[in-house]
Fold this sequence. Notes:
The chain is elongated and about 75 Å long. The strands form nine sheets. The chain has a five-stranded mixed β-sheet. A four-stranded antiparallel β-sheet has the order 15-22-19-20. Strands 1-2 form a two-stranded antiparallel ribbon. The protein contains eleven helices and 23 strands. By secondary structure, the protein is α+β, with helices and mostly antiparallel strands. The chain has four domains: 1-33, no CATH class; 34-195, Adenine-n6-DNA-methyltransferase TaqI, Chain A, domain 2; 197-236 and 401-446, Bipartite methylase S protein (Helix Hairpins); 251-396, DNA methylase specificity domains (Adenine-n6-DNA-methyltransferase TaqI, Chain A, domain 2, Alpha-Beta Complex).
Amino acid sequence: MSEAISIEDQKDMATEVFAKEGYKKTKLGWIPEDWETPCIDEIFEFLSTNSFSRSLLNYKEDEGIYNIHYGDIHATFKRPLLDFNIENRIPKVNNGTPLSQNIDYLKDGDLIIADASEDYEGIGEAIELKNIGKNKVISGLHTFAFRDKNKKTAEGFRVYILRNLLVKKALKTIATGSKVYGISKGNIQKFRVVLPPLPEQQKIAAILSTWDNAIGKQEQLIASKKHFKKGLMQLLLTGKKRLPGFCAEWETKTLGELCEIKGDYGINAASVPFDPKLPTYLRITDIDEDGKFKVQNKTSVNNQYSKNFYLEEEDIVFARTGASVGKTYLHKSENGKLVFAGFLIRFRTNPNKLTPYFLRQYVNSNKYWNWVRVFSVRSGQPGINSKEYAILPISIPPISEQKKISIVFKMVDKEIALLQTQLTQLQSQKRGLMQKLLTGEMRVKI
């Protein structure tokens, strides 16, 4: 009687049975027969990097040396190609900061990779440089800088080498750490990647560039609509422009006169992976820059808590400490039942005096944020407590005009949301196409 076949062997046999003709099996997975799996150091040379902290960087200098910080690769640069003709949020090294004599200045087509990440998804995240021109650019803290040393890779394709699903899966096996994951130079030098022939790389880069252009135009539409809304806010929320049929005087009240503090501070509790059987937790970090709940980052509270800590429809919470102080979130039931965290303060508007949506727009205004900057100053972490929020002055029209103004902003927000949905669809379509092209599941005609 023959020996039992292991589950792993069964999987391998099944894979081989269903393998397409013209493909070969590698340590990274099945790829086209004419593709290669070279090591990183066979393709790229390593350039020098620096370890300048944020305190040595600025966005104010008109001239100076640009520095690519790993944090910006993760959070600031949204496009795979860092185009110096488009991106205006690249920090410079402070004047007077001593530089190494062996510093390497970067060129178009150079690849910069973040060697540290707080999660597996960010491991090996990279950008490729474009249109540097006469600018001087260096690679910064927690980065590797690569340059093609034998013209085996195409410009515009290099940034996608580590975004291949087969490669990303393998990257996780060389990352080390617990709270922060890192990749060492020794590990990545001999790390293998998937590489199509150069003409196919060029065609793939051209296809993905088309999608990037469409995504970029959609982002511009969203930015333009948000800019329009901001201008409208400065007019309608200050009374400089009145809606037809309204002429009554505005009055200035405090937040405490218009709202009730409900439960004051939230709960301080450990969050756990999302569990629909447990309450969903709302922390400062769960609120994005637009004041929306980051649904993709859902976590749960590890215990059942009093209903006093649940947000009700149109409750608004204010962040009371840290870098996020002043940030707000207006609760909508579509986000489910949320338990708000201890660094948030909850207010509930008096429906006869203030509409929640008018308040939500007011806390997006320059006037509000100027007030936050003054009142949040502390000897240590910035902060604003509930008593200070209660004296926040707000100029308001009669409730009927507030409701009309709210309708105007809801219409604009609906347009922005539609544009954002279209952007999300474009990004999702590109991700799907990218993985098919990068793994060879879909081939392009050369």
